[in-house]
Write a structure and sequence with these properties.
CATH architecture of the largest domain: Ribbon
Number of helices: 2
Radius of gyration: 17 Å
Shape: elongated
Strand content: 15-25%
Oligomer: single chain
Strand order of the largest sheet: 1-2
Length: about 80
């Protein structure tokens, strides 16, 4: 079973073996809960549009993505 270490900033790294097995990718949101004294981490399903550096977007598209992101955060 893979192990990980808590850093001085209380961060952990999900071992590569676990990331590959679960298909966890950079930038995904994970929900952390405590159940019966155990840490449970689950993937949060989001349908948020992400913007890539250098992507050619109009100001209207940027505003729309910001508004969608705000609505998603308020849910």
């Amino acid at each position: 079973m893979p192990t990980t270490k808590v850093t001085r900033n209380y961060q952990i790294t999900i071992p590569a073996e676990v990331r590959r097995a679960l298909g966890i990718r950079e930038g995904e949101l994970l929900k952390v809960e405590i159940e019966d004294g155990r840490i449970v981490i689950e993937r949060v399903e989001t349908f948020r549009k992400t913007m890539k550096l250098g992507e050619d977007l109009t100001p209207h598209e940027i505003d729309r993505y910001i508004e969608e992101g705000i609505r998603e955060c308020l849910r």
